[in-house]
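user:
I keep going back and forth on a fold encoding question. Separate attempts, laid side by side, tell us more than any discussion would. Would you put together a sequence-and-structure record for a protein of your own picking? Write it directly below this note and I will take it from there.

assistant:
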Amino acid sequence: MADYHFVYKDVEGASTQWDDIQRKLGNLPPKPPAFKPPPFEPAADPDSVPKDKSWVDEKTEEELEELEDDPDLDDDRFLEEYRKKRLAEMREAVKISKFGSVMPISGSDFVREVSQAPPDVWVVVILYKEGFAECGLLMQCLEELARRYPATKFVKIISTDCIPNYPDCNLPTLLVYNNGAVKANYVGLHSFGRRCTPEGVALVLCQSDPVLNDGQSGSDPSRKTVIEGVQRRFLEKVVVDHEDDDDGSSSD
């Protein structure tokens, strides 16, 4: 009768008493630790996360509008008010982002881009021609102001495209529009003082109306608020220029 050899395997990680003795004597390597599965952790429930200001800030405009019917926010008046405030801020930011540069237009664009601009938008139009140094200088100032005051619309148009046979001696000319009407016009670079700077142009534009709007004072800022902001920027510029002059003279 043939001999049969049976090999018995114990459960994984188990060992015999003989193996334990051999390990104590150093004849076998240490016993590997028994496998243990990681503890079970249920997936986080988004609805169970506490709702606070940071939770509202992470929402998009569409999500904030959907939260209007959220019963949980109805129980928290502060979060509901904060949601409305946040939604208003996002809409204002979208409105401001429309501008921020001096946009070129043609004669056929004038009515749509200038005369039919929304009533709460001030439009500054520069009539110019290429190759005129004075036009280039004023254009640089307007480009700087367009970046500073993105809620004010700045456009540029070649003078004869806007007004046929417009005299070159009147260039550059600025027209200020609001609610479809001309509110002011400035003919020639001398209208902005001996030195044409962005700050000087800003002060002239805001002499009688709140033309420049940085978007931080709401859609209808008062003339006083705008003038104070323009004057503050003007004084800051003067101080910085004065400090630069002092640094230059002391280094000689």
The mean pLDDT is 78. The radius of gyration is 36 Å. The chain is about 40% helix and 10% strand.
